[in-house]
Amino acid sequence: MKQSPQIGDRITDKSAPPDERTVRSWIGPEAFEHWVELQSWIEASYPGVFAPEWLYGGKKRGWSLRYKKTKAFCTLLPAYRLFSVLVVLGRAEREKFEERRYSWRPQLVKLYDEARAYPDGKWLTVAVSSADDWREVTELVSMKRPPLSCG
């Protein structure tokens, strides 16, 4: 008997990357609005810079949509009834984050403080379920690479 998906479960069918309809039904309509809005913002703010690429991370991590030029920009993580974005903050971005430490929302500062530091930076997985979450994610990625146009 197949177990029902739990909140946060990833899309793990490795036969093919998920299409838009699959992502929408998996993460839910509200989360999907944030998903589409973020993709549109990236496309408008960084025209022609990124070619998003679906990556399969195995049974545990499932599918993710990575935006990368030479360095990783961000990775969109579709999960059951949940949408998160992975942002790796390198040394320069961590300094910028610290400069603005008291302007970020407490939840993000806590996430940042609790994130383990790796040689390539701190890996933040930010759940996006509100306009405030969305705005902070766009600010985080803008620290990594300033937008080319006002998206």
CATH architecture: Alpha-Beta Complex
Question: Helical region count?
Answer: 6
Number of domains: 1
In terms of per-residue confidence, which ranges show pLDDT below 50 for 5 or more consecutive residues?
none
What is the CATH topology assignment? Aspartate Aminotransferase, domain 1
Overall mean pLDDT stands at 94
Strand content: 15-25%
Structural class designation: alpha+beta
Number of E strands: 6
The CATH class label is: Alpha Beta
Topology:
Blueprint: H1 20-27, H2 29-45, E1 53-56, H3 58-61, E2 63-68, E3 72-79, E4 82-89, H4 91-99, H5 106-114, E5 117-118, E6 121-127, H6 131-144
Antiparallel strand pairs: 1-2, 2-3, 3-4, 4-6, 5-6
Structure overview:
A hairpin with a 2-residue loop joins strand 3 and strand 4 (82-89). This protein has helices at residues 20-27, 29-45, 58-61, 91-99, 106-114, 131-144; strands at residues 53-56, 63-68, 72-79, 82-89, 117-118, 121-127. It has one domain (20-144): Aspartate Aminotransferase, domain 1. It is built from 6 helices and 6 strands, in the order ααβαβββααββα. The radius of gyration is 15 Å and the shape is globular. The chain has a 6-stranded antiparallel beta sheet with strand order 1-2-3-4-6-5. It is of the alpha+beta class. The protein starts with 19 loop residues before the first helix and ends in a 7-residue tail after the last helix.
